Amino acid sequence: MDMQYDVVVAGAGPAGIGAALEAARSGVKVALIERYGCVGGNLTLGYVGPLMGRVCAGTMAEEIEDLICTKRGKVPDFEQAKIALIEVLDKAGVDVYLQTAVVGAEKKGERLEKVRTAGKFGEIEFCAKVFIDATGDGDLAVQSSCPFEIGREGDGLVQPVTLMFVIEGVDQDQTLLCKHEEHYTELGDGREYLDLCHKACESGKLPKNVNIVRLYNTDKATERMVNATQENYIDPLDPLAVYRAEVELRSQIKKIMDFLKNNIPGFENIRIKGSASTLGVRESRRITGRYLLTEQDLMEGKTFPDAVVHNAYFAMDIHNPAGPGQSVNEKGVPNKPKPYDIPFSAMCPLGCDNLIVAGRCISGTHVAHSSYRVMRICIAMGQAAGAAGAIMCNTGDTTHTLDPQLIRRHLVSRGVALE
After folding, report:
1. Closest by alpha carbon to 249, among 181, 165, 193?
2. What φ, ψ does residue 333 adopt, rounded to 5°?
3. What is the pLDDT along the chain (419 residues), one digit of tens a residue?
């Protein structure tokens, strides 16, 4: 079965939703392909919150956060997010194909002609003028024979994987939060929470590669979202490795729960409210594009004439690929860049001139990736990709011939403060 669209977006996570919404609202016919049975990716199935990172004012990241969170900076209600995100896509007229996996692609020269997908129904082939890869892993780009890199220089290791979960039953008078490696908090009995975590890791009360149990507030005082489990040396593209990680991380959840119950006042009666339905992958493929975004670019706060994301900011948050803590050292503090731009050229893969990538799989180094991989920045990239895709449909341009100023003007007309 062949389906014809103007723009086909692969992956319905934060970047994919941003891309599909912007393209559809710009008047082109859009298909959104998703391998799971629910849209949202880490915003729903991954139990990841709050939306992290900063970008300039006016991007779709603000709309999405306001749609699924009771307040900006809060962890979403993941069940409500599943409803809200599918409703906004449906209202925009996006055709969403769930339970549909990208399995192949057909090219003619440097032009992607067709994407093959598979599911219980069999195969569906999608033809389009423009394709957007928002899979996180760069699946469509790789199927289209685009070059890529994976892992850090030297040993090729990627950041560890995680399973997020939410607990309930916290005493309503206990206000403990721990959002990052610098969030020091006294427990009221002379103990400091981060120090307690580090000692528990060293003594075996926490898993050997878990030296911080991050706790985020939801919209309920008796709940916390927990970001703590960590498994190293996992290839997130290997299904058996993913399964072994699931086994280990589910076991780690039990140990982390025991640590909180037995050591933190007000946590004695906690229980698990819910957990991620898919592995939280921080890093996999990075698709090689016309420009490679580097650590130096971020540290300098570099601007670009073809910038489609402006004033992006998040720490270079490299969870140690070979142990606990940050990669700089076990208890290290991440480097902090200056607000920087993401150029359209970093979203244009080599070898395919009607394919755009958006999200954590854009063209960048291992270190630079650790900053732009977070959700507010990914949504802004997705919106820019959707705008570019719609413009290309109307002008007949490729990623090589499209004037980036058309994308910028389109985004500014949407209220994005690119200047």
Report:
1. 165
2. -100, 130
3. 789 999 999 999 999 999 999 999 999 999 999 999 999 999 999 999 999 999 999 999 999 999 999 889 889 999 999 999 999 999 999 999 999 999 999 999 999 999 999 998 899 999 999 999 999 999 999 999 999 999 999 899 999 999 999 999 999 999 999 987 777 788 878 899 999 999 999 999 999 999 999 999 998 999 999 999 999 999 999 999 999 999 999 999 999 999 999 999 999 999 999 999 999 999 999 999 999 999 999 999 999 999 999 999 999 999 988 888 776 544 556 788 999 999 999 999 999 999 999 999 999 999 999 999 999 999 999 999 999 999 999 999 999 999 999 999 999 999 999 98
